[in-house]
From TrEMBL:
Residues 655-716 form the Secretion system C-terminal sorting domain. Pfam families: BPA_C, Por_Secre_tail, Porphyrn_cat_1. The keyword Magnesium does not apply. Residues 1-21 form the signal peptide. This is Agarase. Residues 420-522 form the Porphyranase beta-sandwich domain. It comes from Reichenbachiella agariperforans.
Amino acid sequence: MKLKFYLFLFILMLGYNIVQGQDTVDVNLHIQHVVNGVSDFDRAKFITIHDDLTGNEWESDEQKRSLLEDYDVYFGRNNGGIVWEWNNTKEDPNKAGWPDVDYMKIRGQNEKSNYSSQTFVHQFENRYANMVVGGQEHMFPHGQATKDGLIYEGFDATAEFYGQYFKEYFGEGGTTGRPKPGLVEVINEPFVKTGQLGTTNLEMSKYHSVVAKRIKALNPNLWVGGYSAAHPAFESNNFGHWNGTWKTFIDEAGADMDFFSFHLYDFIQTTGDMSQELHRSGSNIEAIMDMISHYSYLRLGEVKPFSVSEYGWLCKTCDGGYDPKEDWYNLRSFNTMMVQLMERPDQLIISIPFMLLKASWAKPVDAEYNTYGPRLLREIGEVEGEKAHDGWVYTDLLMYYQMWAELNGKRVDSWSNDMDMIADAYVDGKTAYVILSNLNEEAKTVNLKIKGTSDNPLVKITAQHLYEIGDIPQLDTLVYDAAIDAFDLGQQATVIMKYEFKNEISLSESLNEKKYYATNYLVPIRPQQSLAFSIPGVDVGEHGEAVLRVGIGRDHGMSLRPALKVNNQVVPVPVDWRGYDQSTRDIFFGVLEIPVPHELLKENNTVELVFPDEGGHVSSIVLQVFNSSIDIARSGVEVEEVTLTVDDLDLGMEVYPNPTTGSLTVKGLNMNSPYSVFDLSGKVLATGALSAGEVNLSGLQDGVYVLQVAGMDQVFQVRIIKE
């Protein structure tokens, strides 16, 4: 969003005026960042391709080898092979409606023998550990006959096929047969297809549970999950969508799932009109993941891992041939989403940017060229001026693998003063990588504060900057032989800066991150009523930081700036969140990430929220705690101690008379701006929205109070006196 984050903290009779100027990013290369025990960047989780070991759409073996090894890419997903086998399996002659297990054993042995002869691909088996194999909706038993005439009797019969398939068709690699995948997604995007299958979300959830149990009975080391959800819109129908989909699935099948899977897309519904794009990048993704995690914790007693088996950019109405602009939209979404997913290395098993190789199966019968969207390979001739059907070349989507080719190492501390500028950093021996991803729809100059290597000479910096010119993707390589103080980052662009030092970088300090979940979730918002949450069992270190993550789903125009108290202490709420204002979505559904002073935290914590208006829900409450071995200084803000009088603070807002005998007049802000009145202990006494620019204090006793008003781009708190 384009709003800037101006936060004014006032403590009793004194306050601090904190003003954000240019975007600033701090990186502490000596402070290792560990997320719930995980610090290493695992390329098998993030740098993946939607293909299998024996995928047959490559132009040559060398092309396959080059992409996998030169760019260090790992296999991601296959949703076709298991469907073919299901469709061609014979019926048990002694048990109608069930697969013939003897036939499957013979067929499986043939498949293993066939794989053993494909010796070229054996060298890539180390890139297969997190591989996902998924089914399609046809495999749900609903009375249909397979190609071989088998009509599966029901859930148990189909589950038998799944279990026997993974038992009989896979070996342990090399001459024993194709190695088993790491993950199984039972059916791809089933809930959007239950209508055409003549079933319900509840029955589909039961099916997942039956299939998972049988797969794991025959293949104990396989992880089975679901439900590969398409278009998560939890907030729809006042969270009726959530109740009918994810809550139903977790309640019915969650205990039998080893992981939860879903798909994330920025998407557009009207051809060519990018102004109407619906972004998930930013706060919406955070709200989706937090809500699933929170309910998983409450219902199952654990936070299940995630498989994000598709993510990127989607335009169902964008017909026609290859368009490099669509490559840019995908590249932009791949990068911004991935850096958000990288913040959850403990929970992510795998994430797969959705692009296929040639997608030959999708080519319309009468079309000269394929019109399928995100493809890594296109035919020469698809671009005007090229010779027709003259071979195959990479699309610009290759830039994704080019820019991420080298990233490795342990995560280290990074911090941005702008919610829309995501920062991340890693250290690998003598090399450090600093990543910046811009959610803003405008270019930004980012000030860089790289710390922790003062006695280690810098050799050079190499930056990979992926941005656009006229919506055509550009990947620039920039080399610097000395430190730089700032970087000019394109709109919605991402840069990876590789810092090479003379000596190894010492990780002498630590930052340990962990999330804690409230004991309740999905609470309806009532006007001027306290919403209470408890967060027990928090480990609070001697030093650190904390962020309260508040998931909110509300109609546009409603307040997103509640009054907040943590452990009975007032905590100001920022007026910014990740990404845009969600104006193109039906309602706002996102996470407010609210800094909380670490010293306020206890083992058992209370959170109180008060909204001035009615409607919507608080969908999740998560406390993100960062315990550090030392205090970490943050730059990028100016802090001035000030007295709490309007005359002394040039805030762009007038409040008078002060002192007052009954009401205050507030000028300089929108008339509908939400306000809260606190006593000096932090207790909320009144909330509302400015009406005719007035705040009525007639119901308060004489005394000293704090008035908080949220403007368009600032939050103001002013000491007031009632006489």
